[in-house]
Amino acid sequence: MGFIAWIVLGLIVGILAKWLMPGPDGGGFIMTVILGIVGAMVGGFISSFFGFGTVDGFNLGSMVIAVLGAMLVLFVYRKLQR
């Protein structure tokens, strides 16, 4: 995937993760994109480590992996904020 595709995927995944885990988060739009991109990378790394697949494009499996990774990153981010 190209750089622009990662940003678009990060935006979508970040929005979905914040929608699934609502709460008082600062940072706005940029932080949503960053958390989404990092979450997609973390989700892809963890899922490929355990043999479940990778984040390799805009398909359902990649989106699920990326959203789960973004939710994990968002959880850690909130714990570090406190």
Which class of secondary structure composition applies to the elements? mainly alpha
Cα distance spanning the termini: 34 Å
Strand and helix order: HHH
Helical region count?
3
Q: How does the overall form come out from the CA principal axes?
A: globular
Catalogue the unreliable spans.
none
Taking the sheet with the most strands, its summary is:
none
Topology:
Blueprint: H1 3-20, H2 28-49, H3 60-81
What does this structure look like?
The protein is mainly α and 82 residues long. It has a domain at 32-82. It has three helices and no strands. The N and C termini lie far apart (34 Å).
List keywords for this structure.
single chain, 82 residues, mainly alpha, 3 helices, 76% helix, globular, transmembrane helix, transmembrane, Transgly_assoc
What's a concise summary of this model?
The chain is mostly helical and 82 residues long. 76% of the residues lie in helices and 0% in strands. The model has no long low-confidence stretch (mean pLDDT 81).
